[in-house]
């Protein structure tokens, strides 16, 4: 495009050299090579789509699948096992070269370790892929549509197909799909809160700006991510996708680095600790062997290397990464069923650690459905039941008794006026179009059949609402309702002119403003002069409703007496009433006022109480009026009832701005309601809470919420009303925009964390048992009769492949089953976990050590039974060749250790409660134990598995010995728990 047009073509986008708000609409159309009346041709639109790309926000480049798969191996424990694999392979090669006759045909240890690692990686990859698919499915729930002019015809296309130069038609209820310059606007109001934070819809016009202005003041521009609340408009699209104002914010967010979650940090710390511990133990044992036994031959070197491999295999819970992934993924799936879509598996545990939930009010704590609850005529104060946009409810007085017929009729006339002076629309399916406040009047009127007159009103002219006038009026004619409806409507004070000939005006607006234009009042079924006492009474009613946080709207009417607009007093033919409101808005009759509120969700109060009981603070952060925010907060139990609570627990954005940093931090520690706040306040509040050691969950829906959502420990985006930028920034998306879903997610997160602790206790104590068995088996080999006096070197108590099998057998299925264990304690009756608390604390390490030593003791005792020269020798071991005695002893120790760990699976479900409490609550655990037993039997009795795992069949009495010794682990664990509980009681 030519430079003279103010537009050039660069990098897949049309870029204005000048702000389009400073150009007149025709100049913008010429610059964009588009026809305002016909729009682009289909062919040109397709060409621009190919050139400029789709109208979508760019996400981070997708990681290739092969990289995602390799990332599963990026773990210190995996590196340790890979090192063990290399050592085992080297040992096999050395033995194959120096002693081929006795060397194994294949390096079984290496093969099995590699297979386990690959299996773990496949499981992890598959589970993470499922989580990504869930998020993608959410994004495809609905495809936004936009009305455009193409080839001179109106057509509807997907918003992603909008291109620069398109002519877009806007109407009430539409979402704006891209940035553009207005060329036509009729009473157009757009809600830009998602972009600018402005809570009131902004009035738009086509006038060219004389100078550049801030985003919120560009009255002739519309922006992606905003919504039309009133009126119609025609727009030339000037920017799409990442070139929109929303795109600029999204681009800035992409560079932000994400902090690892507490669980990720802890698992990394544990992995590092285990790696160091294994290396220290291996070096220590090898040094001891070199000193005690000496390394006299290549065979001694091979034995020592194999021992190092055995220690590594014994210490490392190979399945930890995969089990953790599976457990988190299962939790994600359960949360998804409750409308909480978690984007990252590791975020699940963080939810359980949340100590503060910062929530928006509208739509999250409330229904986001404006509802008329109060109807005040001059002498009556009525309630109307029902919430939301479902037109079901009835009129009642405060004691829930039906009102008098006269009060009911007066209320019906008031709602009829509100429904007539209205641009909203209520569809048959209870969906709405237009301003929610206006629609609430239609819903209330329909609840009591007061919309009869609205159905028989023909609008001729209107004087629209604006922020200066604070009122709206319509003028038109009325026709008589059908006979069937007439009985309930004939007493209306305007029924006398329902002949379709004379004009009637209806108005609604701020009560204190509308009252100024009223000279009469409808009282006791009649119209009379409005007295000073009446005015004072009405003003008092307004003040009372405002104190109770209701949004108030007054209704009035006037019979003009004219038959045509040009016959109105002071009007000329063709008069524009919008320019002369006094022509209509005078000598009006006051009907009454309504109190409107966005009601709190009924289920949220219980959720807030549950969160409070769990030590989780609920903080409301809203742009609404302080009184409204405080009223909702008190209704939901976020703050206590009473005036003192308002002063102590509520702050506004202006008050925050006046505080010093020290005062701000002190206020954040106890303030629970923030009203009239800007986006920067939200971010500041979140950071202050984090500085105080809290784990913060922050909800948001608009683009301006994205920085705070991104900075929070758990960013929560709204799935229904949330913008794409906010969803991209969040760790979790609420598919139902409901606060109760967050609390349910916290409960689920805590249960998952408890289960993670269960299987970590189980895995680590089981692996500690293996390490202690190998460690003490080597050091006490002579004492136990494990070594062979006829040969040099040392005999390891258990083979590396046996230890790996134990880990695979007992760590996989039982640990996964523990990951879905029903809660053994009420997780919402305790405080949240602190940032300084460890996933694996000192108490758990004590549990691990005690149970590990018990396992090692019973295992070595079982081996000693079949080793000559030990403490105890079973008669059946006498007369066997020493090599067979070693195999039998290993088989016994191997089997005892397997069953000891299976018993430990029940003991590890709690660090304090008995294993017999809820022992049969987890059917998956029993199934996992049964599967492990069957697989162990196969290793003992299948001949080729005997060769691979160095085992031999056991007799019946040997099985009794194995199970009896293994059961001592459960008995010992129960005794240890009793001792710990007694100590805790004495300390308390």
From TrEMBL:
Please provide an example of a Pfam family that matches this protein in its UniProt record.
Cation_ATPase
Annotated keywords: ATP-binding, Cell membrane, Membrane, Nucleotide-binding, Translocase, Transmembrane, Transmembrane helix
Its UniProt entry gives the catalysed reaction(s) as: ATP + H2O = ADP + phosphate + H(+)
InterPro entries, alphabetically? ATPase_P-typ_cation-transptr_C, ATPase_P-typ_cation-transptr_N, ATPase_P-typ_cyto_dom_N, ATPase_P-typ_P_site, ATPase_P-typ_TM_dom_sf, ATPase_P-typ_transduc_dom_A_sf, ATPase_P-type_domA, Cation_transp_ATPase_P-type
GO CC, one annotated term? plasma membrane
TM annotation in the entry: 77-94, 106-126, 273-293, 305-330, 759-784, 790-809, 848-867, 887-907, 919-943, 963-983
Membrane topology per the record? Multi-pass membrane protein
* Alphabetical list of SMART domains matching this protein: Cation_ATPase_N
Residues in the signal sequence = none
Claim: Translocase is one of the keywords in the record: yes
Tell me if Translocase is a UniProt keyword of this record: yes
Q: Tell me where it resides.
A: Cell membrane
Q: Which organism is it from?
A: Galliscardovia ingluviei
Q: Which NCBIfam families match?
A: ATPase_P-type
Q: What is this protein called?
A: Haloacid dehalogenase
